[in-house]
Amino acid sequence: MLKKILKSYDYSIVIVYILLCLFGLVMIYSASMVVAVQRYNFESNYFYVKQVKSLILSFIAFFITAFLPYKMYKSNKFLGLMMLVSIIGLAGIFVFGHVSNNAQSWFRLGTSSIQPSEFVKLSVIIYLSAVYAKKQSYIDQFNKGVIPPLLFLIFVCFLIAIQPDLGTASIIFAIGLTIILCSGMKLKTMMKLFGLGLLVVLILSPVIFLKKDQIFSETRIGRFTGFMDPFGTKAGEGFQLYNSYLALGTGGIKGLGLGQSVQKLGYLPEPHTDFIMAIIAEELGIFGVAFVLLGLSYLVLRGIYIGVKCRDPFGSLLSIGISSMVGIQAFINLGGVSGIIPITGVPLPLISYGGSSLLLLSASLGVLVNVSMFVKYEEKYKKKQEHTTMQKTSINHRGFKVH
């Protein structure tokens, strides 16, 4: 049985995942050496060593979730416990969390930090996938089939947004909407949902206007100012994006060479986290950028393909949710680095420094591999049945002719 299971694994995802993680590890070491010494007065390999430890835990999480049957996640007991832990974790941030980069989003554990909102991404994917899979028979009944899971999604996003972490809240909300759009609802139901969203926006407009000074702080407004005119505000709000442009433009086709970045020498803030793609472009040129883009694109497209092929509604929505998480997060990060959208502080999946993000993505991709395994196993079983049926039909047909 174990041999059959191992044969059914999607090793292409495993290989791409490992290659991206190892590539990210190399680039984290290159991008963080100077920052560790100049800014934090640490050893030059400080962030590299911490990422290695996170990577070991992430590999373990990946292979555990790849081995465990994904269908166990849709049990009511598991879903209830997962929701409870997610809400407690997000609420506990406001009491026991510490502030970093103007957001109270982390629990401090010794020298390490855990960001619960990262793990809530997978919780939301599993919860929405399980609930909408169970509601297939009445999914177009608005009050019964649509609203209850949506309220949980909105509540979770609200708790994350007031930390404040609008970037992560936006990602989770976008992932949730993707699962809802792929859940099998009719267009009429989706239009009702869209109308409800507009109504909520209209109701909240006066509150947003009254609290505009708190919601639209100088830091947030500065991100839009820097986004709109990075060259005119290069000494202020546009400093990050301006230096990101310099790194992207300097790399060219071949790049300056691994470890030879100039922008990481104190010019580009957060070169090993949010702006690691700029360092990749500067040091490895278009080839390094293409490697990352092709790898992430493969994971996203493969996840969507698995979701389409999976006959189980829960597995299908789970695959689509995980692949959309990787795609949305990658788009927001790359959009900020390239100036397509304002900077949000979102890490690049599997590449940027960050233990919580890497652990969450690893566990999620492990689940995707497990769904893929079941899809392959079912396809092989179906082909075997069809072959057996054809053989029996052929034998019966020959027997009838002889008679």
Layout of secondary structure:
Elements: H1 2-7, H2 11-38, H3 46-67, H4 76-96, E1 98-100, E2 103-109, E3 112-114, H5 116-134, H6 142-161, H7 166-181, H8 187-210, H9 212-215, H10 218-228, H11 239-251, H12 276-309, H13 313-338, H14 355-402
Antiparallel strand pairs: 1-2, 2-3
Family: Belongs to the SEDS family. FtsW subfamily.
Transmembrane segments: 12-32, 52-71, 78-96, 116-133, 145-162, 168-186, 193-210, 275-301, 313-332, 352-375
Main location: membrane
Please summarize what this structure is:
This protein is mostly helical.
Head-to-tail CA distance between termini:
42 Å
Per DSSP, the total helix count is: 14
Please count the beta strands (DSSP E, at least 2 residues each).
3
Strand order of the largest sheet: 1-2-3
Structural class: mainly alpha
Q: What is the domain total for the residues?
A: 1
Q: How large a portion of the residues is in β-strands, by DSSP E?
A: under 5%
Binned, the helix content reads over 70%
Averaging pLDDT over every residue, what do you get?
A: 85
What is the overall shape? globular
Give the ordered list of helices and strands.
HHHHEEEHHHHHHHHHH
Radius of gyration: 24 Å
What can be said about the biggest beta sheet?
Answer: 3 strands, antiparallel
Low-confidence stretches: none
Function: Peptidoglycan polymerase that is essential for cell division.
Pfam family, one: FTSW_RODA_SPOVE
Membrane topology: Multi-pass membrane protein
Main location: membrane
Notable traits:
cell division, transmembrane helix, mainly alpha, transferase, 72% helix, cell shape, 403 residues, 14 helices, three-stranded antiparallel β-sheet, membrane
